[in-house]
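Action item from last week, closing it out:
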Amino acid sequence: MKRISVIFILFLAIAGCNPYNMENTFLQQSEISLTWKGEVQVSYDPADCQIGFNDKTCEYRVYDDRLSQWFTIRCSENPKEEGQVIAGDVSWTGGTGTKSFQGLPFEVKQISSDGLIKLWNEDKDIGIIIKDIQ
């Protein structure tokens, strides 16, 4: 009986481990993009993509020239410092069809010296890298 209990506890400990940490994988990326559940959904390519920012609505947009892949995030405020939490309405279309989530909390994980801003929503595993083009 004691042996079964030890095996069961070991099984629970192993099953509870998550060797694939999506947040850390996302933070290693360095290109403007939207990642969902560990998969890049939309990636910015300067040869055939556009980026935009609307200061009045605090909305960032990334889209390809054919409008077949795009994402937008409308932020409650401009992301300015690491650790800041902002609300965001995010929509995108790409390999998984069109998705949209409203009012998600995004933490500003990193701001690089070249203006790249990494936003992370832990609940939905959404990572967004935008560029400060103000």
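Closing note: The radius of gyration is 18 Å.
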